[in-house]
Amino acid sequence: MAAGVAASTGKKVLLCERMEKPQRKVRITGKGRCNLTNMRTGTEFLAKVRVGADFFRPAFQAFDNRQTVRFFEQIGVPLTVERGERVFPTSGRAWDVAEAHIRWAQQQGACIECHSRVLELLTRSGHIHSILVEQQGGHREEIACQAVILATGGASYPATGSSGDGYRLAHRTGHAIEPIRPSLTPLECGEDLRSLCGLHLRNIEARLWIDQQKVASEFGELEFLGEGIGGPVVLRMSRQSVDALIDGHRVTLELDLKPALSVEKLQARIEREMAALAPSTAVRVLAGKLLPSTLALFSLEKADIDPRKALATLSDREQRAWIHQLKAFRLPISDYRPFSEAIVTAGGIRTDQVDPQTLQSKRIRGLYFAGEVLDIDADTGGYNLQIAYSTGHLAGELKDR
Ligand SMILES: Cc1cc2nc3c(=O)[nH]c(=O)nc-3n(C[C@H](O)[C@H](O)[C@H](O)COP(=O)(O)OP(=O)(O)OC[C@H]3O[C@@H](n4cnc5c(N)ncnc54)[C@H](O)[C@@H]3O)c2cc1C
User: Which ligand 1 atom sits nearest the alpha carbon of residue 19?
Assistant: First the structure.
């Protein structure tokens, strides 16, 4: 986006891409469908930008979600708005978004060089004057320039090319970096959840506890993974969880597996199910009527109830303990999954060193920043790509105040 906008204003633009093709990450976004923005109103949109929203506002106002939609439709990518105001290409292919965007930038006059990794930003008297680039085969070249837009992404999914180079490049030119950590990342549980692996729960309420305090709650989908728990509700709570774990706090996820039923209604439902079953039926059969079978067994185990036990012998205390598990199923969180599994990177180039109206560095003239390399990040739902598009568009204007 930045390269295309800069080229469209008549600048001679070289886009250095270290991988064999640009936009590898975009091609895998939204499970290969690319949720490229979100149509919520400006205020609602900015509320989803959890860090750096004030800094981001001018870039968003200059090129917002509606302009992004118009832009992609104009360059030949028809779009569809789905549940939660999320916008996807109608074709369902993230690949189409990436290819059309690259073609457009080239049509504006940007020259794209792949296998071209920027190693150093060279400055003199507080002004950028060239970059050092390593090409395929290890050949190094210094390229003179009047301006550089650093849009190297974060440190998550490094196999896509964004392995954190931008932080080093910015740091070496005197910029402070807010410590980076994985965000929108699955969490690991202190209990053995292998028996639940592959289970996908919809319509559950998850509450996040840090030490003795409930700090967030989310409603939606959750997945039990090979090594931890993921899915939208967990990802949305992961930023707070990661920070709390780093600071040494106790983190617990509490799941309401039956949020539509109050404790009383759940009790009545269980009594109805029990009445319809023979007294000798094993408790696991009853549990299986309310939950997927693996989770049913797990919940009974957590309530300390033998699943083979006959319904007739289930005591009131055991019933109450089980209902408690259904309404407040607690999972101690022991760790978070690494950058290789995180959707975005929290932290990055500190925004107080960057002019929000131009995205030019306040330290180095001619150096601009765009995208995830900045200390801005948002929830899932198309917000992070919009951050990249808005900041890329503004930085591409190469305004000098
Ligand atoms: C699995 C996954 C799914 C996602 N799904 C969504 C989604 O559906 N919606 C959404 O809004 N967000 C999504 N995101 C987040 C979104 O993809 C990123 O926030 C966004 O791509 C950031 O854009 P960027 O241009 O700043 O960085 P990137 O897209 O990471 O691009 C940075 C580019 O710079 C190149 N580069 C890095 N260092 C150098 C160097 N030294 N020299 C030359 N080139 C270099 C990289 O190769 C890369 O091509 C997803 C992320 C992941 C990992």
Answer: 47
Does 61 reside within a domain?
yes
Statement to judge: residues 49 and 114 lie in one domain: yes
Q: Pick the closest to residue 370 from 353, 399, 347, 390 (CA basis).
A: 390
265 vs 276: CA distance, rounded Å: 17
Bridge partners for 187 per DSSP: 229, 336
Q: What pTM was estimated for this model as a whole? A: 0.94
* pLDDT for 214: 98
Q: Which residues of the chain have pLDDT under 70?
A: none
Q: Is 209 contained in some domain?
A: yes
Among 286, 315, 337, the domain boundary falls at 337
Residue whose CA lies nearest to ligand 1 atom number 52:
343
CA of 161 to the centre of ligand 1 (A): 8
**Spatial distance between the Cα atoms of 360 and 371, rounded to a whole number of angstroms:** 13
Q: Which two tokens stand for residue 303?
A: 């309530």
Question: What is the end-to-end Cα distance of the chain in Å, rounded?
Answer: 21
Alpha-carbon span 38 to 84, nearest angstrom: 8
Question: Which residues sit with their C-beta closer than 6 Å to ligand 1?
Answer: 16-19, 22, 24-26, 28-30, 34-35, 117-118, 151-153, 156-157, 161-162, 165, 343-344, 371-372, 382-385, 388
Q: Are residues 354 and 254 in the same domain?
A: no
Answer for the pair 377, 344: CB distance below 8 angstroms, yes or no. Answer: yes
